[in-house]
Amino acid sequence: MLDVRPQPALHDTVTALTQRLFHEARLLDDERFEEWLELLCEDVSYHMALKSRRFRADRSAPIAVGAGNVFNDNLARLKLRIDRLRSGFVWAEDPPNFVRRVVSNVEVLDADEPNEAVVHSVVVIHRNRIDGQTRLLTAGRTDRWRKGGESWLLAAREIALDHSVLPDSNVNVFF
Amino acid sequence: MDVADLVDTSTGRQSRSIYSSEPVYRQELERVFGRCWLFLAHISQIPQPNDFFRTYMGEDDVIVIRQKDGSVKAFLNTCTHRGNRICRADRGNARSFTCNYHGWSFAPDGALAGVPLENEAYFGELDRSKFGLVPVAQVAEYKGLIFGNFDPAAPSLEDYLGDAKFYLDVWLDALPGGTSLVGETQKMVLNTNWKLPVENVCGDGYHLGWAHAGAMMAVQSMDLSGLSVGNASANLEGGLSVAGLNGHMALTSLDGVSGYAFYPEPKPMLDYLEANRPTAIERLGKLRGEQLWGSQINITIFPNLQFLPGLNWFRVYHPKGPGQIEQWTWAMVENDMPEEIKTTILDNQCLTFGLAGLFDNDDGDNLAACTEQSRGWRTSQMDVYTNMALGRSGAREGFPGDIAAGLVSEHNQRYFYRRWQEHMQASSWSDVPAYNLNSLASREAVDA
């Protein structure tokens, strides 16, 4: 017997959340940051941890004070990043880079909370930058989306960046 | 190539070819990275026996290993048989390192410990003692920082650091518990020549209010020598550009608090500083304890180590050819700090100078474009200049070094390129000049 647990969410939930991810990606591609913020819960957690390459058999102690983060953001800090991007002083984004997100491998699962869903996805961010070169940033994402009224809002996003050395000179993008 | 023509310290001129020329780069690997003391790891990163940390010296892959007796050894990360890399992990703990290719294994002390088919195929005739891992010629520690040097004839680490220790100790020795690096290594590829990020941090307060204006608007919470968004102002009385110390530099404010100017909520940090300032004064003397400890200080150890008390990042640049580097960054803390202060520092370092750092993300494209604009047929024949405040430096009571006023000056950059040229012209250490300008007679003179 195939044990499917947690149960796959209902078909309309899957459709709604998949559409939500695609819509979110388009808002970010178009730098519609203020509209993107409206998709986030007040208590949103947006997180990407630092990693290292370790031997599978490695038994060394956990790193003191923690691994550190690329993003460790709440709503206020995400707004801080957007304030910077909107300041007119971020020369690395002027002229704008060509940025396009491809979102795939969407998997929607029931969450512990009745009004929430866990959503796994993969995002590939294409950046054709000021030097004419293209960088691809690939990450896995595990989200919690919360139903607020008629709409789904992002409550938490855990991002796993799949690069041991960042192949670009900045991360002026959201995943 | 005549190195004498590439840099002119008296006018602040550099030939752009030093950022793009392959022959210049090959000579740097030999005469700068092959000769200078290079940062390898912090003792806090390899606390236990058999802990290891992988890094680079120039383009050479190196493993740093804590020994059973507590000492530290460093080896080239290459099998002595056919040359394969023996350690592929960034860090960890290992009782041995086994080569993937034919299975030779090496002990943490570098000894060749195992050779498959040693009797059957080598007929028992292999002299294992001649095939141990190749050690880095010199390894030494200064207050927690482990350095390596490929040149057995290089001066001792203590002599190499010289009077820069006066400034280093403001971070490394202010409190009895010492310091640590924390967090995983933040690694980023930048398409820049390695000298440009060093120059950017060693003395270039000029770019701060302009290149980082967006970040300053977002997080600046305190005055930093009058530097402001759009470079509208600067207070030259508020800081020092310190050079003339064998290629090492410090760029420092003097208020004892502005290290935390780029913390959106600096109060817990300021409370911590005030609670511990009497100890810092006791250990460092009044001048350093009051004016430097807690200030924003950019410290550069020639050629490629930089760390900034206050913003609390610690960084090395590993060259990957004339036009590319890997930039490695960590957060740094004082071990006497309460856990919540350490956590705040790691968090703020990642926010400001991490991979998605609000400030750090402003620099990469500028440095890459400066590099690219030195590669053309015409541009490679052109010059660039660090000629701000030429001739406006001298002694400053209580502080070693040749010192210019303020954080906005190009005084330090000129000394950086002067030291680079001195190394590039010297065929061995005996030809490298030594100078610790305005050296202090003794530590007591400072404390008095």
From TrEMBL, chain A:
The keyword Oxidoreductase applies. GO terms for molecular function: 3-phenylpropionate dioxygenase activity. Coiled coil: none annotated. One of its GO terms (biological process) is 3-phenylpropionate catabolic process. Keywords: Dioxygenase, Oxidoreductase. InterPro entries: NTF2-like_dom_sf, Rng_hydr_dOase-bsu. The keyword Oxidoreductase applies. It is an enzyme of class 1 (oxidoreductase). Its EC number is 1.14.12.19. Pfam families: Ring_hydroxyl_B. Belongs to the bacterial ring-hydroxylating dioxygenase beta subunit family. This is 3-phenylpropionate/trans-cinnamate dioxygenase beta subunit. The lineage of its organism: Bacteria, Pseudomonadati, Pseudomonadota, Alphaproteobacteria, Sphingomonadales.
Automatic annotation (TrEMBL), chain B:
Belongs to the bacterial ring-hydroxylating dioxygenase alpha subunit family. This is Aromatic ring-hydroxylating dioxygenase subunit alpha. Gene3D superfamilies: Naphthalene 1,2-dioxygenase Alpha Subunit, Chain A, domain 1, Rieske [2Fe-2S] iron-sulphur domain. Residues 37-148 form the Rieske domain. The lineage of its organism: Bacteria, Pseudomonadati, Pseudomonadota, Alphaproteobacteria, Sphingomonadales. It holds the Pfam family Ring_hydroxyl_A. CDD domains: RHO_alpha_C_NDO-like. InterPro entries: ARHD_Rieske_2Fe_2S, RHO_NdoB-like_C, Rieske_2Fe-2S, Rieske_2Fe-2S_sf, Ring_hydroxy_dOase_asu_C_dom, Rng_hydr_dOase-A. Coiled coil: none annotated. Keywords: 2Fe-2S, Aromatic hydrocarbons catabolism, Dioxygenase, Iron, Iron-sulfur, Metal-binding, NAD, Oxidoreductase, Plasmid. One of its GO terms (molecular function) is 2 iron, 2 sulfur cluster binding.
